[in-house]
């Protein structure tokens, strides 16, 4: 092969060729036979939305770079791909596509619609993932909606139920009216918005005043204040006026829940309400009587210091209801519509009720005032509808029983970056409610439970029944002969109602490390715990928390050794990428223009835990770098493929080549081996940014700009003497070593490019292992300690810096870089520097095409000669006017050197009556060396030397 067979430019469209080859050859398949150390990656299963976004790209680029690196390091890597199919997003999309609600068709039909959509979306996302070169083992693909995976989820339910960690109960839960289902606290997102704080008067009840505040004659009341309430009005806020005569003024952002009000709470230390404690007030509009009670959680400084407790406005209401055993009034139904308990507002939506209530409060004189305030509103993280708190019969995991274990396991796991661990621990500390795991949807793993129609007893499925949809099948038992028969309840009934609620989708994905390991098969322990969990910081409180909880409960140990957290992707406008902001860049758009590897270099140029901005200039730089590398490879290949080195047409023999390495060879090889160690360490600790930046800097500058340019003269040398031949062989060996090694270092980041270049090297049998077709299956290059030499790196840098100075001089002087320089003398009083440069004298001469190069310790002998003087007419004209021609004539007709000497001696020159000085002329000077020839002097700031360039 010759360079004619290698395209002049790198064509990223060839990436598809390599993706097909990798897939066809299944080179990323996990073997699992124990011949290699295992490396298990617990990969995040995304929702199959049909398209991947830049957040996915960043996350999976991290995973893929790590997987490829571990394979090169000799590990048997399990890199599965999962799909978290169940949940609200798919159901919402199906309802939108078919213009239906979930209950408009049968459960079976609706589920099938969800399955069909999910299959389509998985196919599209799988294609996109492969187009970016992600190296999953697709043989181990798992899909949570399949019977096999649902069986594992349901089995985990049975196991935890047997351990009394799962129970059914009637409790307040977060409820999404749009999705008509309960959701966990971890699925509630909080957004700040502006709303009205409404000051509403709750009227005091006279019966309370008579029975509890005085003896019936009004004596105590008359002692405390006069008819106008002066004493009270002095010690209370004017907006509250007199509580005993006017009641209590509360401030609320949720007036629509007046009908669900069950108490008014004040701070026990708030003197304004000390006389109201234990009394009753009347709720406006709905008219029920509620007690005024005290609790230290009330903030006296907010609003009026009096808070209405409604069932339920927020978590605090739930706390107070439970603490004081208050009544529960259900004023909102599952669809967010006001119930009969709302009285005149029955049938209204929440928003309609709020507006109507405010209008009525104003009309009836109960609304004192309104203020604009900021509030955090909890919303469903899927459809963004504000959530409500409803009392429902649901299934729960007893999180509080496991909190200690969760914290213990969290500390056993290595977190990268470390500070991300606090997010999970803080979330654990904030847990007040158990995890509600039941959902009132259809497309999800069924809860394996039946209820006896006769006595109501709960029957939990047995392992042999899994996977099961209890709405479709009755419970069964295995008799003594091994036959399956219908289950009979203890009450004698065989009539059962299957649980229609389904499991939270996190119940599926939170067993991912167990599922990929093969649990509950006893052999699963060979692949569990996983080595690593890579995920985004946005799902620490869900996927990370639930996985730790579930695996600890089911196995007693941690789910993974390490967890690596990636950040979010921000658009060029500085905001998180989102469709609503219109700042989304599709991965396909980048790949079409610049290729997947350019996109991957962008993803690599970041560190775990940090949010990443997307910038087209980063993509373009990655693309430009690959082209730079390609051009260098193409140039090098011309010399590598020329295996003959002398007149006898003998092939290159790299045996004992190290004995013939020249100083610059040793310099670049030392830097190469140091680079290998740095990149190896960076990949090992997931600092991909250091890896890609170090590789790019080395390849672009040290290798391409410096070393290749410095050895071209050796490669093109036609001399056939032993020294010249050995020098050429050493240069070729060094080029080959650097190109192969850096290519392997780049493989985890730019796998397509690496295999494309490697394929040409393999075809010419230059690579070290001729039996392997893909660089992906080679080994990580060894770092050769004996080639690492700090001193040679220091010396090589001096030589490279000197070459750079002279190249910049040629460029500034408009001298072509390939044009020869007659003679250069190097002067310095630094003996060590001079002795160092003597080692590189051939490289300096050859690289810069210097005919003669001398290194001298002698003192520089240089003279400055004035070779031309021209009149400064802007000075002469205005000053001398009519005498100016005499001065011009003098300056242009006399010897420049004589004029300069006169000026140097006297500082002025008299021409008739006119006196001129240096400001009246322009002098052109030249430097003359000891040879009598014109020279240029260079005195580099960073080098203790002077360069005399003879022209």
List the helices and strands and how they pair.
Layout: H1 15-25, E1 38-40, H2 54-72, E2 76-78, E3 82-83, H3 88-98, H4 107-131, E4 142-143, H5 147-162, E5 166-176, E6 181-183, E7 188-204, H6 206-213, H7 219-224, H8 230-235, H9 243-246, E8 248-252, E9 261-266, E10 280-282, E11 289-294, E12 306-310, H10 315-324, H11 350-363, E13 367-380, E14 388-397, H12 399-412, E15 414-416, H13 421-429, E16 435-436, E17 438-439, E18 449-452, E19 458-460, E20 476-478, E21 484-486, E22 496-498, E23 502-503, H14 505-509, H15 512-517, E24 530-536, H16 540-555, E25 560-566, E26 569-570, H17 587-594, H18 596-604, E27 612-613, H19 616-640, H20 663-684, H21 688-715, H22 722-746, H23 751-763, H24 790-812, E28 821-827, H25 831-839, H26 841-848, E29 850-856, E30 862-871, H27 873-880, H28 884-893, H29 896-906, E31 909-911, E32 914-916, E33 921-929, E34 934-938, E35 946-950
Parallel strand pairs: 1-2, 3-4, 9-11, 15-25, 24-25, 26-27, 28-29
Antiparallel strand pairs: 5-6, 5-14, 7-8, 7-10, 7-13, 9-12, 10-11, 14-16, 17-23, 18-19, 18-22, 20-21, 28-35, 30-33, 31-32, 33-34, 34-35
Helix pairs in contact: 12-13, 12-16, 13-16, 17-18, 18-19, 19-21, 19-22, 20-21, 20-22, 20-24, 21-22, 21-26, 22-23, 24-26
Summarize the structure.
The protein has 951 residues and is an alpha+beta fold. Strands 7, 8, 9, 10, 11, 12 and 13 form a seven-stranded mixed sheet that branches. The chain has a six-stranded mixed sheet with strand order 29-28-35-34-33-30. Strands 6-5-14-16 form a four-stranded antiparallel sheet. Helix 2 (54-72) links the parallel strand 1 (38-40) and strand 2 (76-78).
């Amino acid at each position: 092969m010759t360079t004619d067979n290698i395209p002049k430019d790198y064509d990223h469209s060839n990436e598809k060729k390599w993706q097909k080859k990798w897939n066809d050859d299944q080179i990323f398949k996990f073997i699992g036979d124990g011949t290699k150390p295992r490396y298990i990656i617990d990969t995040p299963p995304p929702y199959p939305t049909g398209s991947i976004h830049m957040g996915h790209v960043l996350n999976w680029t991290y995973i893929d770079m790590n997987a490829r690196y571990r394979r090169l390091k000799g590990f048997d890597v399990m890199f599965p791909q999962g799909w978290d199919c169940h949940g609200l997003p798919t159901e919402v999309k199906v309802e939108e596509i078919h213009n239906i609600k979930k209950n408009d068709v049968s459960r079976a039909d609706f589920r099938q619609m969800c399955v069909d959509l999910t299959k389509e979306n998985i196919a599209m996302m799988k294609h996109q993932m492969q187009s970016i070169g992600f190296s999953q083992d697709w043989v181990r693909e798992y899909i949570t909606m399949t019977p096999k995976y649902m069986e594992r989820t349901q089995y985990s339910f049975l196991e935890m139920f047997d351990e009394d960690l799962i129970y059914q109960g009637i409790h307040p839960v977060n409820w999404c009216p749009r999705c008509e289902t309960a959701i966990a606290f971890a699925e509630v997102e909080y957004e700040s918005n502006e709303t009205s704080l409404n000051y509403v008067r709750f009227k005091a009840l006279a019966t309370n005043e008579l029975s509890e505040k005085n003896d019936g004659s009004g004596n105590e009341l008359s002692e405390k204040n006069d008819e106008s309430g002066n004493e009270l009005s002095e010690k209370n806020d004017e907006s509250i006026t007199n509580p005993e005569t006017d009641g209590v003024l509360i401030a609320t952002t949720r007036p629509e829940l007046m009908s669900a009000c069950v108490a008014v709470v004040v701070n026990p230390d708030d003197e304004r309400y000390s006389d109201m404690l234990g009394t009753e007030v009347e709720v406006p509009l709905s008219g029920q009587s509620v007690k005024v009670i005290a609790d230290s959680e009330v903030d006296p400084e907010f609003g009026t210091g009096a808070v209405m407790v409604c069932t339920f406005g927020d978590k605090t209401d739930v706390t107070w209801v439970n603490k004081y055993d208050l009544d529960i009034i259900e004023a909102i139904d599952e669809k967010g519509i006001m119930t009969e308990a709302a009285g005149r507002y029955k049938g209204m939506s929440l928003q309609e009720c709020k507006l109507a209530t405010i209008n009525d409060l104003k009309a009836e004189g109960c609304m004192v005032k309104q203020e604009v305030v900021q509030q955090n509103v909890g919303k469903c993280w899927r459809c963004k509808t504000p959530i409500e708190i409803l009392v429902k019969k649901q299934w729960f995991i007893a999180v509080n029983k496991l909190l200690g274990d969760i914290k213990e396991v969290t500390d056993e796991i290595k977190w990268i970056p470390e500070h991300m661990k606090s997010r999970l621990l803080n979330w654990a500390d904030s847990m007040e409610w158990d995890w509600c795991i039941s959902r009132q949807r259809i497309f999800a793993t069924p809860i394996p439970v039946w209820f006896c129609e006769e006595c109501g007893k709960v029957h939990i499925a047995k392992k042999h029944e899994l996977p099961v949809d209890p709405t479709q099948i009755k419970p069964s038992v295995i008799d003594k002969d091994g036959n399956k028969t219908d289950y009979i309840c203890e009450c004698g009934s065989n009539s059962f109602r299957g649980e229609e609620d389904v499991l939270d989708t996190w119940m599926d994905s939170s067993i991912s490390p167990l599922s990929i390991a093969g649990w509950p098969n006893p052999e699963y322990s060979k692949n569990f715990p996983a080595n690593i969990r890579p995920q985004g910081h946005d799902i620490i409180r869900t996927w990370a928390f639930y996985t730790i909880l579930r695996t600890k409960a089911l196995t007693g140990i941690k789910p993974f050794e390490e967890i690596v957290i990636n950040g979010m992707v921000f658009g060029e406008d500085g905001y998180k990428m989102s469709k609503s902001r219109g700042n989304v860049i599709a991965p396909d758009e980048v790949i079409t223009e610049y290729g997947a590897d350019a996109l991957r270099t962008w993803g690599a140029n970041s560190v775990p835990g940090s949010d990443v901005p997307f910038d087209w200039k980063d993509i373009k730089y990655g693309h430009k770098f690959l082209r730079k590398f390609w051009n260098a490879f193409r140039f090098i290949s011309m010399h590598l493929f020329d295996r003959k080195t002398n007149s006898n047409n003998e092939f290159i023999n790299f045996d004992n080549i190290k004995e013939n390495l020249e100083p610059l060879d040793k310099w670049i090889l030392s830097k190469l081996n140091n680079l290998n160690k740095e990149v190896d360490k960076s990949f090992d600790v997931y600092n991909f940014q250091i890896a890609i930046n170090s590789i790019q800097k080395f390849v672009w500058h040290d290798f391409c700009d410096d070393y290749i340019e410095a050895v071209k003269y050796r490669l093109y040398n036609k001399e056939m003497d032993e020294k010249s031949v050995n020098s050429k062989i050493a240069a070729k060996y060094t080029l080959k070593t650097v190109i192969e090694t850096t290519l392997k270092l780049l493989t985890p980041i730019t796998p397509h490019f690496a295999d494309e270049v490697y394929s040409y090297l393999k075809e010419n049998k230059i690579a070290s292992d001729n039996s392997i077709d893909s660089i992906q299956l080679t080994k990580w290059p060894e770092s050769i300690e004996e080639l690492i030499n700090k001193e040679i790196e220091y010396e090589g840098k001096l030589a490279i810096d000197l070459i750079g100075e002279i190249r910049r001089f040629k460029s500034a002087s408009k001298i072509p870089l390939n044009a020869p320089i007659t003679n250069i003398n190097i002067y310095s009083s630094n003996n060590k520097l001079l002795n160092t440069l003597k080692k590189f004298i051939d490289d300096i001469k050859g690289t810069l095409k210097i005919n003669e190069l001398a290194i001298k310790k002698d003192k520089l002998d240089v003279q400055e000669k004035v070779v031309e003087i021209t009149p400064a007419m802007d000075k002469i004209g205005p000053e001398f006017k009519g005498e100016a021609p005499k001065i011009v004539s003098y300056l242009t007709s006399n010897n420049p050197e004589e004029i300069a000497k006169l000026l140097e001696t006297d500082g002025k020159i008299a021409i008739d009556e006119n006196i001129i000085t240096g400001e009246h002329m322009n002098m052109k000077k030249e430097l003359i060396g000891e040879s009598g020839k014109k020279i240029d002097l260079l005195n580099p700031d960073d080098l203790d030397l002077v360069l005399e360039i003879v022209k």
